[in-house]
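Subject: Interface between my chains keeps coming out wrong

I've been trying for a while to get a sensible model of this assembly. When I model each chain on its own everything looks fine, but I need the whole thing in one frame so I can look at the contacts. Pasting all components below, labels as-is. Any help appreciated, I'm running out of ideas.
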Amino acid sequence: MKPIIFSRPMTQVIPMLAGIIAMAGLLLASCQARRSSEAGAINAQEAAQRVYVAPGKYDEFYAFMSGGYSGQVSVYGLPSGRLFKIIPVFSQNPENGYGYSEETKPLLMTSYGFIPWDDAHHPELSQTNGVPDGRWLFINANNTPRVARIDLKTFETVETIEIPNSAGNHSSPFVTENTEYVVAGTRFSVPTPQQDVPIDSYKKNFKGVLSFIKVEPSGDMDLAFQVIMPGFDYDLAHAGKGKSKDWVFFTCYNSEEAHTLLEVNASQKDKDFVAAINWKKAEAYIQQGKYHQMPGTYYDNRFDTSTQTARSFVHKGVKVLIPAECPGLVYLIPAPKSPHGVDVDPSGNYIVANGKLNADLSVFSFDKMQQAIQQKQFDGEVNGIPVLKFDATLAGIVKSGGLGPLHTEFDDKGNAYTTFFISSEVVKWKLGTWQVEDRQPTFYSPGHLMIPGGDSRKPWGKYLVALNKITKDRYLPTGPELCQSAQLFDISGDKMKLLLDFPTVGEPHYAQAIPASILMPQSDKIYSLANNRNPYVTKTEKEARVVRNGRRIDVYMTEIRSHFVPDNIEGIHLGDTVYFHLTNLEQDWDAAHGFAVEGNRDNAELLLMPGQTKTLKWVPQRVGVFPFYCTDFCSALHQEMQGYIRVSAPAEQVALSWSTGKE
Amino acid sequence: MKTLRHIMAPGKKRIAHVFMLGAVISSVFIYFFPLWKITLYAPQYPQGIRMYIWIHKITGDDAYTLQNINILNHYVGMKDIDPHAVPELHYFPYALAGIIFLGIMAWLMKKRWMYLAWAFVYALLSVMAIYDFYRWEYDYGHHLDPKAPIKVPGMAYQPPLIGVKHLLNFTAISLPEWAAGFMLVSIILGFAAFICCRSTSVKEQINHHDLLPADSSQASVLLHH
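Reply #2:
Try treating it as a single job with all components included. I did that and got this:
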């Protein structure tokens, strides 16, 4: 029996798309027209007061926004919209030497080699009992499939793990209720395992792999297993919670399994799917040995906070489950036309799938889904995966009147909020009644939206942030390239109220937020020098030294307000490679020091937090005396915090020597 | 008043005895609390930096406070505050142990002159200790490295003994802490024990009256005759 997928003749597609585009244009125009009238909805002064955080006061929430194609995560305060920090994750960051220092380079290692850039989309806070707990933040690398873990005590990336057999790691990294697993679904199906095959053999050779990464209580991640799915595109995911906590839901588009001109060819069927995977069952099948071993080399890079150094571990082979061999592991729920976001409400019962080429939202009921499974209300199967009957699982349809629904988040009062990309608005609707309660325009084209805890069991439903793709005419022009923007809405009342626009870094793809009261008390202020086990640490000025080992020079150097030890180094010869091992001896919050040396061709600077050790590799290019200095304005005598390193020709007889304070 | 005093009279020695015990116990507490606190505020340190002086050590808000204060002080050429270099911190705990030992002796012997002598010696040593503390402060504040990067003519950096003082960008507040309070309480209780015991002879008279029970109401009746 064929699944209920209504194919539409090609001739009808073109007019339909044209219609959408025309409607989009009209709606966009109407939004702009509406804007001036909407501005009166909330008095500008009142809005300003609500987002004003007086000097010396703190914001209520930390918001973590993905940097999109900047590969980073940016940390903002809500409601002020102030930028606090950029956490480098998948891209080198010259500002603090991330990905340049020898300690952090391993975090960017992959089976392809050193990859210092990626496209980071979905930040996800770790959860306990379905509530963000402030331990870690996970984020995906879309391009070269990876998942990173950021420690929220230090706001530093502490692990990156590569996902083999995956491509376009988009439906990632969503966590299960107690952070047992982080999932990483492939957006692109590819030959699995990779091989040299014709692209038009797609239907035969291409598969979509959904990965389950186990998270240890320590936070360490391990690739536990993968599920080999049909060759669709897996777009987004969310884990169940409460009664549905054993399940993870993935949306898929391109159930047509097209491999060219997807904008047309993957938009043919009226329904694609939500894939529901029972990870508890998967665990059981793994334990029973029902898995296959598949090749796949991948890196797991871990930053050890005691040595302040990242190490790469290379793994080979991965356990895979084939759904046809594992009854009850996966079910497919038909969902209207190229669903994008899949979001589970705080009760864990409702699964919202938004057909991005459809005007309506389909909401599925977990209870009905379980019932349909028990009663075997199937509508055929795909690759041995049962397809559940659409009507048997449907809880309700939200007739929105908008176009291009993408993502849904929830408040703590039984309301859901959905972004509409094409009609450029946020629509508020009620769970259960499926009635639209409110709608507000956004400027413009929102992708994700975020409510603090809005994808968890306990939303803090005070604010909503719409993450917009386009900002033209919202800010002072900055040439052809404009920032993206976030818009903050007050959702505490019946109607959403626009409070603030603020520009963002990179593309703020998705975001997560958590009350400041959870993170503030646990934030580290220094790294303990006493516990610094970096092999190149220099704990006191007396231990500072320069060591030659063949052509390698190791400089063990300390920094403290306002000098280096040593600050005069001689006896380096052209052809030597110098490793500056800097230790910041300070143990005072915010007493950071930097380090830069002239003519440093391959690296950036170092930025060292109190008690930290970092290593900069420097290959002298010329004979001469070159200054090095502190780059972070550390104290009253910061400008005096400098030193010299002398580089001699190989033939010169200059003995290795170093000193500080010797006139 | 006279009546009241006489009503209390038979318990006086007991009360003095209790006072003296209190004085000793209070002194023991000195080991467990800081004596003095110096707080430094500056624009860069809005939460302040606190340094605590104990009978046997110098501590701060955390393990690194002294290092941080020393880093700040080095700009004006002040010496490092190194608790190991302060001999008083080594022998003061023994001096206090001696005081406590003498206090126990006085308590056991119940001699009025011993209470007085103990409290007097204790008070004298306390004043000397405070003067010693002042001298350390003076030394730190005045004997500056001639090669200091920041030199302000006529400027000394001695923190106040008690009170508030502005030193360049810092506001220094120096105040006694709990242990200083316990020391003061000990001395007061020592003197109180002495004062309270002044009418011992009356009590002894009563106690030596063989025919009468040592009951206070009875005793007062007797005195009225």
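Reply #3:
Confirming on my end. The mean pLDDT of chain B is 84.
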